[in-house]
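General statements about sequence and structure are easier to judge against a single worked case. When preparing material for the folding task, we compiled for one chain both its residues and its backbone structure tokens. The amino acid sequence and the backbone structure tokens for this protein are reproduced below:
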Amino acid sequence: MTRDNLLDAARLTLESFRSADAAMLRCLDVARAACRTELPLLVLGESGTGKTLLAQAIHNSSRRASGPFVSFNAAALSDTLLDSQLFGHEKGAFTDAKHQLRGKFEIADGGTLFIDEIADMSPLAQAKILRAVEYGEFERLGSERLRTADVRLISATHHPLATFANTEQFRSDLFYRLAGLTVTLPPLRERPNDLRELVAVSIRRAAQGQGRSISGLSQNAADALFSYHWPGNLRELDLVIHAAVAMTEGTVIEEFAILIRNGDRPGTLPPALRPPVSADLRLRTVEREHIRRILRELAGNKTKTAQALGISRSRLERKLADAK
């Protein structure tokens, strides 16, 4: 889970992330290791889990932070267009090439290139990526001049990419080059301990963006949010909360404002996985209960609790004092 500046990706670092769920904590452990190395990184996870944001945070927390972070989505592009976008082209290289273009590899020199949905690339595109990853070499489309770029590659897919390594869909040699380190972002349904604060953060951010004052949720609205399985993950949660804030005229979000799949709520979480919902659903209360729960899980160790929450020890002391 992250602080309120989650969507300010240009400033996002791993210190912005915090969690109380084991799957997310494992993910963050690998992400921190990735910041200490130049190895290629493969990010796996369902759509909407925040793969691009995690890649940006890893870049911003690494030794390449002063260099560019270039993001590129490889899905549904023809080989020619993908070649042009990644490696650039010379004027006249193809019919619509009216100007010279620098590719993403060239632009990312000295920094990080993030390629999303890399599993959707054609075999021809995969071969060219392999050469660039192995040797840092590439050619612009329409040019015979060999160029080089110092690029750290982070790639991502919502597919279980390991299954591609033994099929004709994905080159096994490229797979092993991409997966120097592999991190898996858990879906939101596997983060029940984080859901309450994620909802609170999203409400706070949406209210600030819309110039509104929202104090919390009604019990029925909370039941609707906390029993849903969130197939669209963080992206869906954020959209639902922003819409709910827009539809709320008072200071408390009511159930009618929770628009999930046009009012349908299939596939709810089993009761054991739902976060506990108290009668007091004010945002301040949600934060206080979250802090106390983390403190209990860490056996009362305030230093570790502050680290897990991504705040200083002194700030934690102040919050605990305010909660008394």
